[in-house]
Amino acid sequence: MTRYIALLRGINVGGINITMAALAETVRALGHTDVKTVLASGNVVFTSDQTDAAALKSGLEHALTEAFGYEAWVVLLDRTDLAVAVDDYPFDERDGWHSYVMFGSDPDRLDELMRAAPDLDPADEQVRRGAGVLYWQVRREVGIKSPFSSLAAKARFKSSTTNRNLRTLRKILDLPA
């Protein structure tokens, strides 16, 4: 049995509204156990005996699309990978800044995003590549209007990337294993 984390992109924003109770029930209906949601931003933690991660991801996306009528995109990882991503966060956490980890199911898309990073103003934001992730820190005043945020929001990245605040990821890791 493996403890997985499914990070859904684009729910409870832009008109796609899903209650966490309905989300959890959809995951349970697939036969997964110990299902928990964290916050209302599409974070689902569950246990599964399924070992084929690609099939598991595909099954989740199909079930969510069918249940909620939208094109579901999931980044799936196990608890160990999430813990490593959080532990390896390379920037000092600073007042007035947001600290994010961007997860991706397509390394080429993360590389494409990373190639844009040298052009960023380090007084406003910084990006660094990690193992299967990008680490991003942005001044709160700049936030979603930053050049990197605007780039990451483009349609070509929606199906394979999602980001989470470091505080949210710690809440996920604080759940019983």
User: If you compute it from the alpha carbons, what radius of gyration comes out, rounded to the nearest whole angstrom?
Assistant: 16 Å
Helix content: 25-40%
- The CATH architecture of the largest domain can be given as 2-Layer Sandwich
Major beta-sheet overview: 4 strands, antiparallel
What number of structural domains do the residues give? Answer: 2
CATH superfamily of the largest domain: bacterial protein sp0830 like
Low-confidence region ranges: none
Distance N to C terminus: 11 Å
Look at the structure and give the mean pLDDT. 91
Class of secondary structure makeup: alpha+beta
- Described by its quaternary structure, the protein is single chain
Describe this structure in words.
- The strands form 2 sheets. Strands 2-3-1-4 form a 4-stranded antiparallel β-sheet.
- It has 7 helices and 8 strands, in the order βαββαβαβαββααβα.
- It has 2 domains: 2-81, SP0830-like domains (Alpha-Beta Plaits); 85-165, bacterial protein sp0830 like (Alpha-Beta Plaits, 2-Layer Sandwich).
- The mean pLDDT is 91.
- By secondary structure, the chain is an alpha+beta fold.
- Strand 2 and strand 3 (43-48) form a beta hairpin.
- Helices cover 36% and strands 28% of the residues.
- The chain has helices at residues 20-29, 53-68, 79-87, 107-115, 147-152, 155-158, 166-174; strands spanning 2-8, 33-37, 43-48, 74-78, 97-104, 125-130, 133-139, 161-165.
- It comes from Cryobacterium arcticum.
